[in-house]
Design a protein that fits this description.
alpha+beta, two-stranded antiparallel sheet, 2 helices, 31% strand, elongated, 55 residues
């Protein structure tokens, strides 16, 4: 598992854009069996954050 951030953009009720970000270096080292760095593990352990939509 690696830290990942996704951003969805909406126009009305439809998704019109989606961007995803992750650290490729962390992913590559994890694929080689290395443990996550402490800063990355702290991010993975955090709960997901969602912003409530208001009408």
């Amino acid at each position: 598992m690696i830290p990942y951030m996704g951003i969805l953009e909406f126009e009305g009720d439809l998704i019109c854009g989606w961007r995803g970000y992750f650290d490729r270096g962390v992913a590559d080292r994890g694929a080689q069996g290395e443990a996550l760095p402490d800063y990355a593990q702290a991010l993975v352990d955090r709960p997901a954050v969602m912003q409530a939509r208001t009408s």
